[in-house]
Please model this.
Amino acid sequence: LLLADGVGLGKTVQAGLILTELMARRLAQRILIVSPAGPLLEQWRTEMRDRFGLKMRVVDRAALDDVRRQVELGANPFDHIALALTSVDFIKQERVLAELERTSYDVVIIDEAHHCVDLGASGLRDDSLRRRVAEVLAGRCDAFLLLTATPHDGNDRSFSSLCELLDPSLVDGRGVLREVIPRWLADDG
Model:
């Protein structure tokens, strides 16, 4: 799901409503929220706790080390954190991302998802690492939500790369969105 709305119009709250509905239907027990570090990360923690009663654990180096001390040697710490909140720049580290590749979540949310577009060869190393994080997480969950206030920056390839994270079949081999006819329309024939 790509949730695109203006700045300050409640994407965090909308995502929280989706999460609580999935939890009520018993479709989500393990949730990972990824956002930029800093105030936005704290906003997510506060909003999820105060509005939805979700006590997200902020995952950083200290939190992972704490979990590692509590579980058996060699265990994946992410397997032991059901409600996780972390920064994209923390989890793009090689060791952390390798641990995420070996776990799964019912729901993954990436806030400020426009930072995860595929910029191709012209992109900076940090941008390509953020893209790699998004690709890994897209394959390790049942429900994937991308939140952004800027889904389309005027570059069709950037937009199609976001869509590709949600469903690779939406994009052809050249990075161009395929024309998709809704099934209900195609069946009317």
